[in-house]
Amino acid sequence: MGTSTVHLYDRNEALHSLSAIDSAYPAPRVFPVLADERNDELLGYLQAEAFTHVFTGDVESDPQHFFRDLDRGLREAPSFHLWVDIPLCRYRCHFCQFPTLVTSSRTDTADATARRWVDANIREARSWVAAVPALRTTPVGEFCLFGGTPSVLPAGEIERLVDFYRETFAIDERTSMRAEGSPDSLTEEILSTLRGAGFTALSYGIQSLDDRLLAVANRRHTGDQALQVRAAAERLGFTRVDGDLVWGLPGQTVAGFLDDVDRLIEARFSTVVAIKLHLRSFHDVESAIGHVSPAPWEDPRVREQLERRGFAWPSLGQQMQMREGAVDRLGAAGYYEHPTTYFPRRDVGPELWRSLNLDQDKQVPQVGIGLGAYSWCGDAEANAVAAPARYLSLVEQGGVPLENVTTVSPDHREVRAVQMALSTCRPLLEDVHRSRFPGSSLLSGRWGAMFDSLAERGLVRIDRRAGSVALTEAGATLVEAVMNTQLGR
Ligand SMILES: C[S@@+](CC[C@H](N)C(=O)[O-])C[C@H]1O[C@@H](n2cnc3c(N)ncnc32)[C@H](O)[C@@H]1O
Ligand code: SF4
Fold first, then answer.
1. Domain boundary pick from 343, 358, 373
2. 310-356 pLDDT per residue, tens
3. Cα distances (Å, whole numbers) of residue 341 to 171, 219, 277, 351, 371
4. Is 207 left (phi over 0), alpha (psi -120 to 50) or beta?
5. SS3 call for 176
6. Is the CB of 355 under 6 A from ligand 1?
7. Atom of ligand 1 nearest to the CA of 51
8. Which H or E run contains 428?
9. Section 256-278 average pLDDT
10. What range does the domain containing 16 cover?
11. Residue 163 half-sphere exposure, CB side, CA atoms within 13 Å?
12. 378 belongs to a structural domain
């Protein structure tokens, strides 16, 4: 669990880093909450830089159990989130911990690799459908073509893949279709192909609009190119365009990051995703993303070299100034946080896959198909193999390449539901909780005690009359730490 990251924690060092701020901006509002000794675990978690947005089960299990639980979960759910992962990229970014393969710069070799991975994905999907029959009939709420970078596939491979999914799964005009890409590979041709295949929602990585920061991260596009994709996508009929920014990059300043946020607001992105850079090795923490080889920036020697080249790592204080400055600007421009790190425009609403999986009144199953993909339902969760050769060989043998399968004990099911609901940054409602977990209450018993303690420490606000518990601003800033260290099993 995420708490295992805390062993590297040095309180004095963390407080020192938190106090190092950019004097041109207000001191972080979260400072008193983090400096409170009662919140020591939260500070330790923040310093650990772990990416642990994951809702694990608590009992080891096996694929057959998982398939049974998932089949039942799908039959009970109004819809589910189907996530297809194409693990190919044209380059490897120095911060990226996703399991990806870099395709060749020679077109014929790259095309053969693309065919191979689309074939493997289709083969794996067929095995899923054979093992979990309800996958064929349960409506797909949102179909997400994720990666890696699926936009590096040739147009014909995208069409072949999507045609297969449309024929095999319950995808119809009510299904939201979302595709992911990078600014350099979302050409007019690929955007048109995606629109032709029915995609109307687009997500892509921008990371920064500062060309110097992009180059040092080994990104192969400019900030201007990233903004041009936004305009082209709108022209071609995408109804929502969501962009990822990262804070905490080497060489990034508070002013630089906030300028990026302003420019995304000005370009009217539907969602501005503002992600904290996470570099703790996946070997130290559990994560929703399967891992194979470490990101270059995980290596302390590489980090020091960058620093010597003039790319300083922002302190914790500066990072909190980036986050709080972004929250203020986005709030003033009509954006709100839902779930954590995702800021949709209020008139557009949250990205559907996030809302389907996490909102307190939904939390429908997710099925991920592809290298290192992650699937879950209320009763269980499973990761696919993330090592490419092993993945391909298992798929070739006709199996669903799962590993790390866990089921969720009845008690932990409730903990997980509360963790997920908290991660949305929306108020938790007592009525919804009671209808899902009869006999349990958020306002009394163990939840009552836990939320009272969080309220005393400035992290939540309890409204007993309305029957709700909401994160405070500090609570929203620290929600991953709260979920992973305070809600224990
Ligand atoms: C699969 S990638 C996005 C699509 C595309 N491959 C691209 O990079 O443009 C998903 C997002 O994860 C984020 N990401 C990747 N590695 C990260 C890290 N170490 N810490 C925080 N965010 C990270 C980036 O913002 C990236 O856009
Ligand atoms: S950030 Fe995107 S483009 Fe870069 S390596 Fe990761 S998945 Fe590939």
1. 358
2. 999 999 999 999 999 999 999 999 999 999 999 999 999 999 999 99
3. 28, 22, 11, 12, 24
4. left
5. strand
6. no
7. 20
8. strand 428-429
9. 97
10. 1-48+410-489
11. 10
12. no
335 CA → ligand 2 middle, Å: 26
Q: Give the model's pLDDT for residue 294.
A: 86
Residues 344 and 485 in one domain: no
Two tokens at 461?
């606000």
Read off the pTM.
Answer: 0.96
Atom of ligand 2 nearest to the CA of 219: 4
How many independent structural domains does the chain possess? 2
- Examine residue 299 and state whether it is found in any structural domain, yes or no: yes
CA angle 181, 186, 190 (to 5 degrees): 110
Question: In this predicted model, what pLDDT tens digit does every residue of 67-115 receive, in sequence order?
Answer: 999 999 999 999 999 999 999 999 999 999 899 999 999 999 999 999 9
Spacing, Cα 291 to ligand 2 middle (Å): 13
Ligand 1 center–CA 149 separation, angstroms: 10
Do 35 and 69 have their domain in common? no
Ligand 1 centre from 487 Cα, in Å?
27
Regarding whether 132 and 23 lie in a shared domain, the answer is no
CATH number, domain with residue 161: 3.80.30.20
Same domain, 142 and 197: yes
The reported pLDDT for the residue numbered 52 is 56
Strand 80-86 relative to strand 140-147: parallel, antiparallel, unpaired? parallel
Neighbours of 346 (CB within 10 A): 12
Helix or strand (DSSP H, E) at 445: helix 445-456
Last residue within a domain, chosen from 358, 373, 402: 358
Is residue 393 domain-resident?
no
Q: Which residue has the tokens 């159990």?
A: 65
Which residues contact residue 277 at a Cβ distance below 8 angstroms, ignoring those fewer than 6 apart?
49, 95, 246, 247, 248, 249
Write down the residue that tokens 């500062």 correspond to: 210
Largest CA distance in the chain: 66
Lowest mean pLDDT across 2-6, 244-248, 254-258 = 2-6
